[in-house]
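Sanity check. The docking grid for protoporphyrin IX containing FE depends on where the pocket ends up, so I'm generating a full predicted complex first rather than guessing from homology. Inputs follow.
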Amino acid sequence: MPHDNRVHPLGPPAGFEDAISNGPVRMRWPNGVEGWIFSSYAGVRKVLSDKRFSANRDGAPAMRTEGEPVLDSSQPGNMNAMDGEEHLRLRRPLSRGFMVKRMAEMRPRIQQIVDEHLDAMERQGAPADLVASLCLPVPSLVIADLLGVPPEHQELFQATAKQMLGKNGSKVEYEALAAQLGEVIAKVVAEKKASGDTSDMIGLMVNETDFDQEELMLLAIGLLVAGHETTSNFFGLFTLTLFERPDQLEILQRDPSRADVIVEELMRYTIGRLGGAGIQRKALEDVEVDGVTVKAGEWAVISLHANLDEELCPHAGELDLERKAVSHLGFGFGPHQCLGANLARTELQILLQSLFTRFPNIRPAVPVTEMTFREDMITYGASAIPVVW
Ligand code: HEM
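Predicted complex below; grid placement will be based on this.
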């Protein structure tokens, strides 16, 4: 089916809105596990912040079409699947590397990377593919810079991400690629140890934490993957949303200095409209959420359709780039809230400002409904966005 079972590529899976319209949905997933899907603003916040839900994914609802997950929950360094102190031990030191101040220091470098790619796109001439020219390479180079990994390994990061996040990614292929990436990272680790440098993320992990080699390796690979895959997909999705809504694009072009609040609204609306239900938690004991009981051992899966809940803001189903920023759930909520949110925000702001200022007449070369979307990944986005200007 086109667009990952979606009627419109920027909308929810077919039948999804009807299914959730009466509150939590009882589910039995293909691998036999049971639980609920929650999509209200209050319900999602409760699932993501209540300590009676665990992030450990052992036995989780199957999101892949085949094969086993490439990462075990118990793997050292798999921070996203840990709870409590074990999770904080890894997360706390890393969050220093993503502080707003550090991101502000990175702005000129990110701007330079974006400008270089826009120059190249202009030289190459229209039509261009925005995904290949901008969405994929920019976040990849930025995260490599933040970690301190040489940028020439971009293709290796992307191939590893494909296996890690691919719906039918193979564990064997993932392990082979992760081993190659491991060699690249091990070299950087040795250099940082020798120099004592803490100016990038690997330097910080090597010289200022008690992480062992195995933890450090998986954390670095996880950041490389998380750091480029989501941001590139969302930049593409934001652009497509704006192409569909010239009235809203005009608001950005009138005052690009408001890119910070505009990114928040695009994030709230785009993720909310897609509605995907992917983040999973397991109940450690019976917990009441939105009038139902998630029994101990059952799963709660959340839908970020919650971003369109009127409880969050008035006319939540509408995109309004003049709206003040609200506490949307696009970056999650609670202890596992996105560690890279400040970086993603900074990149998305610079990308949006720069693309639409530099190419004020940029437009899609084919209708959005004729573009191809990546149906093979857990994360969702356009495979190519042909544009002219
Ligand atoms: C538009 C871009 C992005 C979106 C929409 C996004 C979204 C999210 C969400 C919803 C979560 C919570 C998952 C959960 O509760 O289980 C999360 C966690 C995480 N994200 Fe992001 N993310 C983005 C970009 C990034 C970037 C650029 C990085 C790193 C460079 C990053 C690193 C992480 C990490 C490490 C976690 C796990 C945090 C933890 O478990 O404590 N993300 N992200």
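Relevant for the grid: Residues 48, 79-80, 91, 143, 222-223, 226-227, 230-231, 234, 279, 330-332, 336, 338-340, 343-344 surround protoporphyrin IX containing FE (CB under 6 Å).
Also worth noting: The chain has a mean pLDDT of 90.
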